[in-house]
Amino acid sequence: MSAGVLFDAPGPRARLRHNVLTLVGVVGLLLIGWFVWRRMSQAGQWDADLWTPFLDPQVWTGLILPGLWGTLTAAAVAAVLALAFGVVFGLGRLSDHAWLRLPSAWIVEFFRAVPVLIMIFFAQYGTFALIGEVLPAFWAVVIGLTLYNGSVLAEVFRSGVLAVPRGQSEAAYALGLRKGEVMRLVLLPQAVTAMLPAIVSQMVVLLKDTALGYIISYEDLLNAGFRTVPANFGNIIPAAIVVALIYIVINLALGWFATRLEARSRRSRKSTAAPVTAPPPPGA
Amino acid sequence: MEALFDNREAILAGFWATIRLAAMSALLSLVLGTLLAALRVAPVPVLRWSGTVYVNVLRNTPLTLVLLFCSLGISNTLQLNFDVYDPSFNGYWLAIVGLTAYTATFVCETLRSGINTVPLGQAEAARAIGLTFFQSMRLVILPQAFRAVITPLGSVLIALTKNTTVVIVAGYAEAAFVMKEMLYESTGGTLEIFLGFALGFVVLTLPIGFLTGRLARRLEVKR
Question: Which CATH number is B82's domain given?
Fold first, then answer.
């Protein structure tokens, strides 16, 4: 239901009310804006020398872009590993064998219930207990993100396969295909179309969570833009705004891509499965 | 088990801080999220537009940055504080501000998707029998919308509980902070420490999923 159906075409009184609400809204926004502006100027945050570093190409090539590269590589490696993790445990949970299905279910539910940060800490220090060396921050971030997002993706894969109508697999079995062939030739191709939007949405979550690397001093965008830059120029607030803008642009682009994919898979007649969304939490 | 047992008081204090953070920000973000959802379906373009901008900005910024901004930006630079003389109280409420500002966007989007699950005919029928906008919202649309989003709201609350660990960057000591201290100091027992804290979070989040799941089934709208 779109919001447009909620309202009648406004009559004279409703139009007056809308105009009053518009006025209230504009005045409210102006008040907020004025308050922020005044606070910022009291703290001297509009001084030009806090903002000009972002016009300096060296700040970008020397600090921010390498940081962005760190964020993107960690996200890319974690995304690939999480997809593999998701396929293995998502299909494992669909297995006919209890010895495969039950451990997969336990692993997936466990890693979905534990905060990513706890896993990152453990990945960093747990290896110290095992091999006597603290794991590089990059791999600690990647492992933490892989375990959590892989578990969510496992649920996405599972619900994607379950979203294919039963008649499809029954027909495939009736043709004499074997279990592996039914999955590979009939279920998975249709399931992928249905779950692609959910996968891309999860990538937004993964990309945002790379910022947790800041906490263990991984050289990512947040660390470069929000620790190193302010350390040199003392411009915490301008740095926060610029770094946030970079994250927002990337994530909006990914989100837009996911919406496009979802519209396409809704129209698609290649798949009999409806698009799947994020799975409900454990216990529900 | 020794490492966990010796530090049981610090661990329990950490989890108590986690619970306090999660409960207060859950309450506030449900309120703020409902307000934002109301803005986003409002008939006035200025309100709708400001709701959309707020949600898209906060939802696409990493929580780490939001919370860092609360402590380094709002508190240190802009000198907006709740109580300068009580760092623990101040840190708690600054963390609440960050968690609420971030989580409210997810509450808002969940509620909005709930409004979208109500069939068109319901709104048309409500209008056909002469209900005004507020009457049809209050009596027909919102009751159905709220009942459709109980499970997704449970997911948001679970995510919030897990996200309280990120408060470590805002300088308020909760469970993840205690875990990090223990990992720094200890010479062994890393696995036990991890499993202990993981179990703590499982214990905190499972009931939320269980309760919202049961509630959702009991209140499900039969169509």
Answer: 1.10.3720.10
- The 10s digit of each residue's pLDDT in B117-140 is 888 889 889 888 988 878 888 899
- Domain span including residue B104: 16-174
| Residue numbers in A near B136 (CB within 8 A) | 6
For the segment A198-244, what is each residue's pLDDT rounded down to a tens digit?
898 899 899 999 999 999 989 899 999 898 888 888 888 899 999 99
Evaluate whether B148 touches B118 at the Cβ level (below 8 Å): yes
Q: Nearest-CA neighbor of B51 among B105, B111, B114?
A: B105
Residue of A26, A71, A125 to mutate for B, most B C-beta atoms under 10 A: A125
- Domains of chain A, each with CATH number or no CATH: 57-267 (1.10.3720.10)
Answer yes or no: do B123 and A211 touch at CB < 8 A.
no
Residues 57-116 (B) with a CB less than 8 A from some CB of A? 57, 60-65, 68-69, 72-73, 76-80, 115-116
Contact criterion met (CB < 8 Å) for A252 and B60: yes
The model's pTM is 0.90
